[in-house]
């Protein structure tokens, strides 16, 4: 009876209520594909300005090391004798100086009447003269270029020797004549040739007459000063060494001709070597050691720590005690032993021993980090499932363990690279790493420290490159650590749940 009533009620229902429910239309673009874990890491890195800035710096440094020496074709070991410790300068013309022989002008004796001797209390006491010599007259610059500055003056009556001073500004008084650069050597010589590290800048030369030829000769209070503006010049031999003139050329045919000297955008060092060329070639050496060595010792430490953590027990204990033994080894002593083993003597660059020393001495840190991660992962369910599926230890380590610790490994690698670059710079700084003429940022910093107060640019550029590299990789490591943080992703997703 009840069933018949139900059928009767159904038969009287409207027809539209008995139609199947229409399918829900899905708006186009309302469903998006979920990103994988590494896609989310890439997106978070791209949105992090620190990571982008660090990647730009690293890209510029790497491209400079790879392409820079191909564009700036200057020998990093080539020396320009006439351009020692120069600042940045553009290409400019220079006059060829062929004759560089000593130049002296000697006049006839100009001795006046004997000078009276006074204040002589005894016959054995040294005599003093109370007559003041006049200042040299008609002091003039005969020739002025960066190879030599020639001075000439009129003789002073009674003078035996003349002292010459050079200053970079106008002298204020007798006590401010500048650097004493020399003295006349011959009797009655009234000329002087200066060739002491000249530059194309103004100089003021002062000449003072003396009464005798002894080292303790009393100088006159009177002096004469003249200004000189040296022009750019290059010696004949140096022009041949730099390839500016043919080796077999006749010197007389090139006398007083001009050639174009290559510029130095960053200046030169204390040996006249181009700093830009040395920075670019040094980037190859420093970045090769700073990147290749961390990749090798991090890779070895990851596999070593994963094996120790996964096997556990006695094997883990023995393997980690060996890692503790490696940590206890002194790095500097091990580096010295490697240099001796490879037969590298003083003055020879030891790039290969340095890489081997970094690999051998630096892997325990990565091994300990990965071991701790694997000790947590080996208790997870996917490891037990892999064992039930017949997977061996090596398969589980390579296929399941290492991919799950890859984020920690990448962060460890980005922090290991600055450590390796600092180690290379330190060893090269103390002469145990890369040594001249092979350029590296560490050896360049060691050379630049010698002229820190006089020419700070020689230390500034390699130190700047080291600082930028370390800063960029440390910043990238921090950004990568934030991007790999899964808990932050889960918290962000939980905050979006209504």
General description of the model:
The chain has 498 residues and is an alpha+beta fold. The chain has helices at residues 2-11, 37-46, 49-71, 236-241, 275-311, 313-328, 331-341, 351-377, 381-388, 393-404, 406-429, 441-448, 457-483, 486-496, and strands spanning 92-97, 117-118, 128-129, 140-144, 149-152, 161-167, 179-183, 191-194, 203-210, 224-228, 233-235, 258-261. The strands form four sheets. The chain has a four-stranded antiparallel β-sheet with strand order 7-6-9-10, with no helix packed on it. It has a three-stranded mixed β-sheet with strand order 11-1-12. Strands 4-5-8 form a three-stranded antiparallel β-sheet, with no helix packed on it. A hairpin with a 4-residue loop joins strand 4 and strand 5. The radius of gyration is 39 Å and the shape is elongated. The two termini are 50 Å apart. Residues 111-130 and 490-498 have low confidence and may be disordered.
């Amino acid at each position: 009876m009840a069933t018949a009533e139900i059928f009767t009620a159904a038969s009287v229902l409207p027809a539209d209520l008995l139609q199947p429910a229409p399918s829900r239309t899905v708006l186009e673009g309302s469903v998006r594909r979920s990103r994988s874990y590494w896609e989310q890491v890439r997106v978070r890195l791209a949105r992090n300005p620190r990571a982008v800035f660090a990647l730009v710096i690293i890209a510029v440094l790497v491209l400079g090391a790879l392409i820079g020496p191909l564009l700036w074709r200057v020998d990093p070991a080539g020396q320009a004798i006439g351009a020692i410790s120069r600042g940045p300068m553009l290409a400019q013309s220079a006059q060829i100086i062929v004759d560089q022989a000593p130049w002296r002008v000697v006049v006839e004796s100009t001795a006046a009447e004997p000078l009276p001797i006074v204040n002589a209390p005894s016959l054995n006491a040294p005599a003093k003269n109370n007559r003041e010599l006049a200042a040299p007259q008609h002091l003039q610059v005969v020739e002025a270029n960066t190879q030599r500055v020639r001075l000439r003056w009129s003789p002073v009556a009674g003078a035996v020797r003349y002292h010459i001073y050079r200053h970079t500004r106008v002298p204020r008084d007798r006590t401010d004549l500048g650097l004493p650069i020399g003295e006349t050597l011959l009797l009655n010589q009234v000329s002087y040739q200066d060739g002491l590290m000249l530059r194309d800048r103004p100089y003021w030369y002062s000449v003072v007459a003396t009464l005798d030829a002894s080292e303790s000769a009393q100088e006159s209070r009177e002096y004469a000063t003249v200004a000189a503006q040296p022009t750019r010049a290059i010696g004949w031999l140096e022009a041949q060494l730099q390839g500016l003139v043919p080796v077999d050329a006749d010197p007389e045919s090139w006398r007083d001709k001009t050639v174009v000297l290559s510029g130095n955008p960053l200046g030169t060092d204390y040996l006249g070597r181009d700093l830009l060329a040395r920075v670019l070639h040094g980037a190859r050496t420093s970045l090769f050691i700073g990147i290749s060595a961390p990749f090798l010792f991090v890779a070895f430490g990851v596999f070593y720590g994963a094996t120790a953590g996964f096997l556990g027990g006695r094997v883990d204990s023995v393997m980690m005690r060996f890692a503790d033994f490696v940590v206890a080894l002194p790095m500097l002593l091990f580096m010295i032993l490697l240099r001796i083993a490879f037969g590298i003597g003083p003055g020879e660059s030891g790039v290969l021993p340095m890489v081997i020393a970094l690999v051998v001495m630096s892997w325990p840190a990565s091994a300990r980090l990965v071991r701790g991660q694997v000790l947590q992962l080996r208790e997870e369910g996917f490891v037990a499932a892999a064992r039930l599926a017949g997977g061996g230890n090596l398969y589980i380590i390579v296929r399941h363990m290492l991919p799950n610790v890859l984020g920690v490994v990448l962060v460890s690698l980005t922090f290991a690279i600055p450590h390796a670059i600092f180690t290379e710079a330190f060893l090269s700084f103390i002469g145990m790493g890369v040594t001249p003429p092979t350029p590296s940022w560490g050896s360049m910093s060691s050379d630049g420290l010698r002229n820190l107060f006089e020419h700070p640019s020689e230390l500034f550029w390699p130190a700047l490159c080291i600082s930028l590299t370390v800063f960029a990789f440390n910043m990238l490591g921090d950004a990568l650590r934030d991007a790999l943080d899964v808990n932050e992703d889960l918290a962000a997703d939980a905050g979006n749940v209504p």
